[in-house]
Amino acid sequence: MKESLNKLKDKTRELMVLSNIGSVLGWDQQTNLPEAGIAERAEQITLIQALHHDRITFPEIGELLEDLGCSDDAPGGTRDLDDVSRSYLRAVWREYSRAVKLPARLVTELARSASLSQAAWVKARQAKDYQAFAPHLDTLLKLNLEKARCLGYQDHPYDALLDEYEPWMKTADLRRVFRDLRTYLQGLLARISEAPQVDDVFLLKPYPVDRQEAFGRTVLADMGFDLSRGRMDVSAHPFTTSLGCDDVRITTRYNENFFKTSIFGIIHETGHALYELGYSQDIRGNILAQGASLGIHESQSRTWENLIGRSRAFWNHYLPRLKEYFPQQLSGIDMDDFYRGVNKVEPSLIRVEADEVTYNMHIILRFELETALLEGNLTVADLPLAWNDAMRDLLGVVPPSDAEGVLQDIHWSMGAFGYFPTYALGNLYGAQFFQRLRQEIPDLDRRIEQGDLGCILAWLRENIHVAGSSKTATELLKEVTGKELSVEPFSRYLEEKYSDVYELSGM
Ligand code: MG
Q1: Does one domain contain both 177 and 145?
Q2: Are residues 125 and 187 in the same domain?
Q3: What is the predicted pLDDT for the residue at 505?
Q4: Which uninterrupted H or E stretch holds 488?
Q5: For residue 69, how far is its CA from the centre of ligand 1 (angstroms)?
Q6: What is the mean pLDDT of residues 104-120?
Q7: Residues, Cβ < 5 Å to ion ligand 1
Q8: Are both 201 and 135 inside the same structural domain?
Q9: CB of 502 within 8 A of CB of 198?
Q10: Can you give the pTM of this predicted structure?
Q11: What is the DSSP secondary-structure string of 408-460?
């Protein structure tokens, strides 16, 4: 048995290496690639993906898993094995059994269509021409329906697709959670809209980019991001990627007239990077050295960005330091002005620029539209109209063109249906974990005010990071907080914070 396990580990280590090679190509594409190299790069990335699919579906992997007692009913294999090995087998079984259900033809067709579709999406968005993108979206929708059928599902085709990003999560669970979330947010937004708006005009002054970067790098270092094991570069869309266990890279973007983009972007991506760098040595280089789910990954970035990075305690420490970099821009701005300014709530068109209160409405909208598309209750042709109606309904704003509406995000052009909900789940998981962290570190705010961010990282490492994906999101949540997924910790957090920012009276 030991021999089969070791053989399997060798095979899956190669898969991690292949996936890291894919990350090198992807990172380079987003940061450095000359425009003329795009077509060749797409070919290189498609080949790596095909090799990965080829390797994970090797009959030998299936035989080794069978030797070790793995099946749909017992994904962790024989009970004689220790917990770490059983978690490992469960993860390999999951990936193997999903991959063998997908014909190689479908995998290649999805990769090729996604690559063509992304190129068409970039042009369509520039030209504000949804019609030019619609045939590509139609193709990807059909291929995703076929993918869902191949993978199999009980209640909803969305279950099969969602599972890729948020393993074991079901559409019905999301519907319930999003219903509660939507009701709460609508009430809070209505109360905020009656309060006087906060003034954030000082954030729109010119803040030289080199100083934004210098300040951002001090915060990243204070958070514990060790740059001997990573880098920070610039890209059009910020992201974090692992090129290996000791090579985790983040990117950010700078806007001279909108300082918030870079600083909160750096804090967000560093939150992702710290998770990737925090997996325990026992799972180093194997399939468990990844996030428990995309939602759990996002909980790490959003906790740092919002619960810590937009808190009073954080800026009590950092505002005097920030003023050393930008004495003129911030002259006359006190702690209260700054705190309220960076926490301004305003219904707006673009998801990635949305504040903490309206953000989840953008996700609920996308979730409702993509499930309707898969159910056949909405056509690709009617999508822009449905988008605009939902925006009016949820946020009271309507995009002037599809570029600020249905064409704004890259995800559907990549064929990624089922991805969006992980962003909202990240907010919910994050608030739930943070409630627990606060109970265990009662003087947290005082420590943050003194610049001690290390106590947060130590807690996150021990309770969340080290496990990698050896626990599912649900298991992790239950183990750390003792509870199931709930909207309550997040709504309580928003309630306390925005009652303060907007001086709201109780409900
Ligand atoms: Mg993120």
Answers
A1: no
A2: no
A3: 77
A4: helix 488-501
A5: 37
A6: 88
A7: 301
A8: no
A9: yes
A10: 0.96
A11: S-SGGGGT-TT-THHHHHHHHHHHHHHHHHHHHSTTHHHHHHTT--HHHHHHH
Q: Tell me, what CATH number does 277's domain have?
A: 1.10.1370.30
Q: Which member of 269, 298, 305, 356 is catalytic?
A: 269
239-273 burial code (b ≥16 CB/10 A, e <16): bbbbbebebbbbbbebeeeebbbbbbbbbbbbbbb
Q: Tell me, what's the pLDDT at 506?
A: 62
The average pLDDT across 108-120 equals 87
Ligand 1 centre to CA of 423 (Å) is: 7
Which among 274, 290, 283 has a CA at the least distance from the CA of 229?
274
Write the pLDDT tens digit of every residue in 270-287: 999 999 999 999 998 889
User: How many A from CA of 238 to the centre of ligand 1?
Assistant: 8
Average pLDDT, integer, range 55-67 = 95
311-349: b or e for each residue (b if 16 or more CB lie within 10 Å)?
A: bbebbbbbbeebeebbeebbeebeeebbbbbbbbbbbeb
List the one residue out of 221, 216, 220, 222 whose CA is nearest residue 452: 222
| Amino acid, res. 22 | G
Domain-ending residue, one of 86, 121, 152:
152
For residue 104, report the distance from its CA to the centre of ligand 1, in Å: 30
* Ligand 1 centroid distance, CA of 302 (Å): 7
Residue 65: which domain range?
Answer: 2-152
What distances in angstroms separate CA 1 from CA 55, 64, 120, one per listed residue?
A: 22, 9, 50
What pLDDT is attached to residue 112?
83
Distance from residue 206's CA to the centre of ligand 1 (Å): 26
Say whether both 128 and 179 belong to one domain: no
Same domain, yes or no: 148 and 187:
no
- Helix, strand, coil share of the chain (percent; to 5): 65, 5, 30
Q: Does pLDDT of 157 surpass 70?
A: yes
pLDDT at 200 over 60: yes
Find the 401 Cα to ligand 1 centroid distance in Å.
Answer: 26
Query: Phi and psi of 304, rounded to 5°?
Result: -65, -45
Catalytic residue status for 269: yes
Residue pLDDT, tens place only, 378-392: 999 999 999 999 999
CB 493 within 8 A of CB 434: yes
Distances (CA, A) of 151 to 12, 88, 148: 21, 21, 5
Q: How confident is the model at residue 115 (pLDDT cuts 50, 70, 90)?
A: confident
* 453 C-alpha to ligand 1 centroid (Å): 20
- The CA 15 to ligand 1 mean position distance, Å, reads 24
The answer to whether 68 and 12 are in contact (CB under 8 A) is: no
Q: Say how many Å lie between the CA of residue 270 and the centre of ligand 1.
A: 10
Sequence-distant (≥ 6) Cβ neighbours of residue 92 within 8 angstroms: 8, 12, 61, 65, 70, 287
Residues 271 and 238 sit within 8 Å (Cβ to Cβ):
no
